[in-house]
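Example 3.2
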Amino acid sequence: MHILEAVILLMTLVVFSNVVDHFVPAVPVSLIQVVLGLGAALIMRVTIPLETDWFLLLFIAPLLFNDGRRFPKQELWKLRGPILANAIVLVFLTTILGGLLFHLIIPTMPFSVSFALAAILSPTDPVAVQSISKRAKLPEGILHIVSGESLINDASGLIAFKYAIAATVTGVFSIKTAAIDFVYISIMGFVSGLVIMGLILMIENWLYRQGINDVIFSTVLQVTTPFVVYLVTEEFLHASGVIAVVAAGIIFHFYGTAPDRSQPELKLVSEKTWDIIIYTLNGIVFLILGIELPLATTNVIQNNKINTFAALGISFLAWLILLAIRVVWIYAYQAVSSIRSRKIKSIQTKQMPTFKAALLAGLSGVRGAVTMAGVLSIPMTIDNGSPFPSRSLALFVAAGVIIISLVVATVTLPLISEDKAPLLTRANSTDDPDEIDTGSADSDAEYISEDEARVYIMKLAVQRIEEERRPNNQKEAFDLILDYQFLIRRLELKLQDKKEMDSIIADELALRRVALRGERAAVQKLFDDQKISKQAFLIANAKLQRLENRMIRSVGRKVKLGHGTARNFIKLRNRVSLWLIRRKTNEDISDELALIQREQAKAAISALSDYFARDDIDNQRFDSQSVYHLIVHYRNQIELAKDHSKKQINDQAMNYQSLRIKALAAEREGVQVLLEQGNIDWSMAAHLRQYINYSETVLIMDYQNE
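Structure, written as tokens:
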């Protein structure tokens, strides 16, 4: 397949996988993408030619730069101990011990390849780690472990992996040389990332002082930064590009978004641009994993020394080995931390280490995009031209460990956590970690959900609009209230259980039928009184019929209007009659249609009022939001039918803008009220305020475009 066609196909499958994830949220989108990639390989015969250099540059550089750029500032210094421990000791332990055990269970795999496989399997998906550890409510010491490793182990694991691959390709290995090279490429990579990022920030600041402060320019410069840092470090300094991009990301996180830039839109544009990039790259990595699975499987099947079932067993054993190493390490670290805390603080009630907590933290070690990106970069041949030893098996085992870790975490997460939210991985999470779990002092506090908070602040906005409604802004007020009511209605239906929701929908449809009968009667009366023409009468009836058909489809049943053939004939006759009438007359009937719209809406409101006034109707059973939404809809129709001049239209735009600003101000006040009353934490308040800020930004952009 041509490279351009492959890119289009992969991006289409990334989008489709997230659509599937919306309907099947219990399954991580990463697994869905693996399955789609497998289907593309088997059905469409898709193949992706991979080369080490461009694959690491294209996928690893932006992924790790984004990790460093988004690592929480408050935790970075606090986690310096766990970060260094996991970056050096745990990765080293996993590589050496895991490599030895891998060679024992796979004797045909050379030591260097076993070490490379263990090294590339040491990085964990940081989003999945946080997703599991937060929901499992692990002790603080273990949270430090799993948080610290989620950033640095990508870089250190890739360094160990790269050196093991080089040893396999060249056939040369020296402990002394390896140690010296490791120190050089690590330190030089770190320094290189700091220096290059510092130079880029200095250049950007200089350009800003010269008046080159375009937001798009700054965003493009930021996106190209990890590629520049990686290439310069790898090609000219021969150091670790992965450590360089992590260091660059951290420096940018601290100094690259200074508040004195007076460009708040830069944060908005750059963050969303990065979301799109990471969203696409992570999805493509897992799709490529699925595409590569048949190749690995075919080669393993053709290998006389091992069959597919044995390879599956090896994958499971490899996952168990990695799990055991993590559990023992985390248990030991927790024990040492507890002893140290008691010695320093003399607190005897300090929580002692438990095997269960260590096991849960071990299960949180889901392997993800970085592991797959690294293992797919294994070269096809070594220096003497021979095939790379055990490449297909290494790829198969790595893919198997990724899938097993995802499946096990998906199955165990609902069992170990009260929160039933699905497992998140890099592929379906783009939230800024700085917004996660900050400012919440009491983890046991009872907070309302985000949907409940949004309903509350939007109801305050509607109340403010009602207070500001005047005769000269009726239409704009009803337009805005209708928009808010639609959002409130959708959120409230999500908050209701299925039985309650079905009851509310049934009652709402009953009210709509009452209003529809009133509309039909009004149209018929206008026609009988000869206030409208036959053409306008037919148009109005056709519109009402379409509305009724949508109502029927919304409840999944059809109304019996006679035999199907007769019903279709009546529809065809009406359409032909309407077409003939339109052909015969050229007169403008817009005034008649406006009259119909006004009288229909008035009749619908009157019909609803009469219905609620009946003694046999229990008004308390109807949802207040449903009734309010319906009344506002018809009052809005009355305003829309009025004749408006060009000046009035301009005034309407200004009125709408003014009401929208006041509604957003009411939403902000609502967020503050919820925060002060203890209904939400600081993290939720920041998220809600961010949503309001985005809405205000869109409002300003619309005003500028007009």
